[in-house]
Amino acid sequence: MRIHGHTYPLHRRRGRLAAAGLAVVLTTLPLAGCADDGDSGSSGSGSDGNGKTTLSVGVFGVFGYKQAGLYDEYEKLNPDIKIKENSTERNEDYYPALLNHLAAGAGLNDIQAAEVQNINELATVQSDKLVDLGKADGVKKSDFLDWKWNQAKAENGKIIGLGTDSGPMAICYRKDLFQKAGLPTEREEVGKLWAGDWKKYVDTGETYMKSAPKGTTFTDSAAGLYNGAVSSYPHQYYSEDGELDYKKSEGVKASWDLAMRAVEGKMTGKLKQFDKDWDQAYANGTFASVICPSWMLAYIQEKAGDKAEGQWDVAAAPEPANWGGSFLTVPEKAKNKEEAIKLATWLTAPEQQAKVFQKAGNLPSSQTGLDLPKVKGAKHSYFNNAPIGEIFSKAAKDIPVSILGPKDQIIKQHITDIGILQVEQQGKSPDQGWDAAVKKIDDSVED
């Protein structure tokens, strides 16, 4: 869930916001995005001087392994191993450095995390520099969600990374504001309002705005709506042949049109997600719903505060969609490659994924892990005891296998942060916003 700390509009902040408040969780976690206090400047691999092998783990933000006690547990199971985590706060800083280290074949951690928006580029361009973890002892394809497994598959069938978590989406909504606007408030009835079609979510927004409590809007942002909708399509920015073809994508067009409809209907708070104004809007209760991956729940709890406890609830999204999720990779040039493979496979095994979920809220990317009672039966006390384990697990299993491309993150960022925001915040026309996004994409991405 993360509670990872990227930067923070949409795709850039995927999760690593710790899921405090899970009914099954015993402790409250810090906000995601806080870097570990490990040194990110060097891998730290080698011997600790006491005959132990030090394995270095490079991550961005908070992956939850230290918080869930997994490093300590592994060290007890393997007394000759010591683990050092090197965390960079933001993926936008971490990933370019990883590419440089892979190119140089030096400065690498024994294990390197990878964000979902970058995994295709690694599988396409860097697969020869990464170990085939699909062949590692104890790794079972059947343990992982099919779509998650395939995201890390290179053309030659090599699996360059094992999934750590996933980011299935739901709709988080304010029961009190829905009630004042004359809408249903119970999560099952709320979910029926938009079941099966993102258009119905916007239809519900139109209904809300007719009786909206003063000073409120239906949803936080058009970019959030776009991100939720487009993520439910298998075809987004690239064709099956690997060609950049977002201009022809049905998913992009339909999702853009929905975002524009929401702007024109004054349904959005005109907010940029993860900015200070967005945080303040949670505290002030000025929007009634937000498209929320599993990892966002803790963020909402933190920003909305104690006064909103029980006012928020969680309903199923119109269609299954994913936002976020990471992988663990092992570089071929890792100093302790064989031991790193063992650690990476252990950390991503179903039982360990479930332990991280209990402590940090990162929803497993393991199908087996999702079915464990400690995951499937989880409820979130802050969100009116919503059965989040059931809601997000079901969504995760139904997510379509999307076609990923090497520049997905950049393309999506320009559509949301350039195109949509110009329309939403600057009053530009939809055509002007789209043209601005396309120009920026053309300048940034080689076809």
UniProtKB/TrEMBL annotation:
Signal sequence segment: none
Tree of life domain: Bacteria
Name of protein: Extracellular solute-binding protein
Species per Swiss-Prot/TrEMBL record: Streptomyces boncukensis
